[in-house]
Amino acid sequence: MLRSVGRILRQFGYGSLLFPTASAFENHADFDQVICVLLDINLGDGSGFEVRRGLKVAGNNVPVIYMTGNDSPLIRETALQSGCLAYLVKPFSAKSLIEPIERRSSTQTGYPP
Prior knowledge:
Blueprint: H1 2-11, H2 22-26, E1 37-40, E2 42-43, E3 46-47, H3 48-57, E4 64-68, H4 73-81, E5 86-89, H5 94-108
Parallel strand pairs: 1-4, 4-5
Antiparallel strand pairs: 2-3
């Protein structure tokens, strides 16, 4: 899945850094050029929700797109209440991934969404 997402992002002209685990991501600190973070809710060594909380505790409010293969009303509600850009259920289309990124990208550069 990780490589597929990277391929889709490249196809639409977006660079990406791919992290296979939550702990690998937690060591990343440079968010100056980041449009958003795409987080799987169910990570092998933690959860996307925990990673997001860690970012906020560190004072980083980078926007998040959550994805999951285990959709449930509680998970969906938790994700949406966190203020995420999007909540995607696997498998998802390239369009459903790219649309919220494009909206965010256009607002970051000053263009209307």
